[in-house]
Amino acid sequence: MSPNGASDSKSNSERPVKIIIVGAGFAGLSCAIESRLKGHDVILLDKFPKLKVLGDIISFGPNAGRIFERWGLHDKMWPLCTHLKTFHLNTWKGDLITAQPLNEKEFGSYSYNGHRGELHQILFDHAVELGVDLRLSANVTEYWEDDHAAGVVSNGERLSADVVVGADGVRSKARAMVLGYFDQPEPSGYAIYRAWFTAKGSGIDEDPLSDYLVKDGDAFYGWIGKDVHMLSSSSKGGKDVSWVITHKDTADIEESWSFPGKMEDVLKIVEDWDPRCAAILSKAPSCVDWKLVYRDPLPTWISKKARIAVIGDAAHPFLPTSIQGASQALEDGVTIAVNLKLSGPEEAPLSIQAFEKIRYQRVRRAQRTGETNRDKWHQADDKKAVEDPKSVALNREEWLLGHDAEKHAWEAYPDTAKDIKEHGYHLPELPEGDVAAERVAKAREEYLAKAM
Ligand SMILES: Cc1cc2nc3c(=O)[nH]c(=O)nc-3n(C[C@H](O)[C@H](O)[C@H](O)COP(=O)(O)OP(=O)(O)OC[C@H]3O[C@@H](n4cnc5c(N)ncnc54)[C@H](O)[C@@H]3O)c2cc1C
After folding, report:
1. What percent of the chain has pLDDT over 70?
2. Ligand 1 pocket mutation pick from 313, 323, 363 by most atoms within 8 angstroms of CB
3. How far is the CA of 434 from the centre of ligand 1 (A)?
4. Considering 29, 393, 401, 443, which has the largest number of Cβ atoms within 10 A of its Cβ?
5. Rounded to the nearest whole angstrom, what is the distance from the C-alpha of residue 409 to the centroid of ligand 1?
6. 212-221 pLDDT tens trace
7. Ligand 1 test: best mutation among 43, 257, 330, most atoms within 8 Å of CB?
8. Looking at residues 344-348, what average pLDDT do you find?
9. Structural domain count of the chain
10. Residue 284 belongs to domain with CATH number
11. Whether residues 74 and 142 fall in one domain
12. Are 167 and 201 in the same domain?
């Protein structure tokens, strides 16, 4: 059944939809899991040879939490996550701005913040249990589509399906091959040093400048200053610790998750700051230096014949300050699976067009919060922030966090599909007044000219 009680068997087709998904990150796994739950046949391809517990802290808001909960994964995921009661936000000098209470549940669901690799493993195992045909060491090098099918070439083998979903991450090949769109990432002017480590043996629990982060279960502390902010938290009852520090950096625009950072560079950023910052940062045995690049929204996420879509980071990379990149990737996957359930294989391209229509503006609004949140913290005036803590508190807005992607897709699909059938397909617009409107309009013109 759908969340609003509608029957799951809406399409009249006698055969399941066949779907190939490229990339077993959170976007690809979400699409694969929801597709199996909707009865589709799924092949999921990833070039990695075996699953490794990679990355560090990742955050899923309640809009993603309700998806995990519907899949029955709460009991597996929750013990691995941070259990936070309060967010202590300070000025760079150490004055407390706010001790913001955090609710375990918001808008009816939990937030899940934990180690990316550990949470990823749970979804990965769940996809296999549901019968996803998961193929590793499968490097996809070509995409194709015609009026009847779409497919890929993986390790030289040609595979075909009703639709293909490119969920191949921020450096997506699908984006370039499917859309004919080679985007040039621009430096955002910022980079992040990040670390995740075991508290025991790090000294963090022995130093009065850092022990409060682990000694009474999980805790969450932040500091904000001109063009820099630092966040640190513990998880699993204070067993693991992670921190991120976002700072000005115009030196390099290479994106990478594994670029090693130098601890002396990290400590230099906070040399005049509240000494608690250096005390926490210095306990990490190592850290990663991750450059943040900026991309304008793509003019479209779908191929000319609407049998191939890009989703997740391949379609719309997020700045971490939105705290929404992974959640939006999950919403994408679920929406495609529901749409395909409603369209059936015969009208599969309609479901891909409807996917873009349903998601494009919402994703862009969510993406913009990455810039507005960052600017709110990086441009805050210390005195004003202490006087008016709400001006720098974490945003907890219902339109973003209360959204139910599955329910929304069930409700929005019929009218969206009808509109496309009656009026033809038109690329979606950015929200009114968007800062990137002019650039995206130009990119769209170029894209459409090529399409003719
Ligand atoms: C190793 C790794 C570590 C990360 N760590 C963090 C973290 O600590 N914190 C955080 O907030 N975010 C992290 N991210 C990013 C985060 O997972 C994403 O921003 C978000 O979850 C959206 O995911 P996605 O599925 O769109 O993309 P991704 O998670 O990037 O997944 C894309 C997948 O596509 C596969 N792929 C790419 N090209 C091909 C190809 N040609 N053929 C077959 N497969 C292909 C990749 O191997 C990868 O598994 C990490 C991503 C990766 C890949």
Report:
1. 94
2. 313
3. 27
4. 29
5. 24
6. 999 999 999 9
7. 257
8. 97
9. 2
10. 3.30.9.30
11. yes
12. no
The CB-side HSE value for 65 (13 A sphere, CA atoms) comes to: 22
Considering the domain architecture, whether residues 281 and 306 belong to the same structural domain is answered as no
Exposed (0-12), middle (13-18) or buried (19+): which is 264, by Cβ within 10 Å? exposed
**pLDDT of 139-184, one tens digit each?**
999 999 999 999 999 999 999 999 999 999 988 999 888 877 776 7
Q: Are residues 142 and 214 in the same domain?
A: no
Angle at CA of residue 288, ends 283 and 289, nearest 5°: 120
pLDDT exceeds 70 at position 447: yes
Considering the domain architecture, whether residues 359 and 416 belong to the same structural domain is answered as yes
Which ligand 1 atom lies nearest to the CA of residue 173? 41
The phi and psi torsions of 267 (rounded to 5 degrees) equal -70, -30
Task: Report the pocket of ligand 1 as residue ranges, CB < 6 Å.
Answer: 22-28, 45-48, 54-58, 116, 138-140, 167-170, 173, 257, 312-314, 320, 325-326, 329
Query: Rounded distance, CA 130 to CA 273, Å?
Result: 50
Q: Which helix (H) or strand (E) holds 158?
A: strand 157-161
346 domain residue, yes or no: yes
Q: What are the start-end ranges of the E strands in 207-310? A: 220-225, 228-235, 240-248, 288-294, 308-310
Name the residues annotated as catalytic: 194
User: Domain ends where: 294, 324, 342?
Assistant: 294
Looking up tokens 């359930």 gives 341
pLDDT, tens only, 222-250: 999 999 999 999 999 999 999 999 998 87
Structure confidence by residue, pLDDT tens digits, 80-102? 999 988 999 999 999 999 999 99
User: Residue 1 falls within a domain, yes or no?
Assistant: no
Enclosing domain of residue 365:
18-83+109-183+299-377+395-451
Query: In this structure, are 174 and 254 located in the same domain?
Result: no
pLDDT for 3: 54
In a domain, 101, yes or no: no
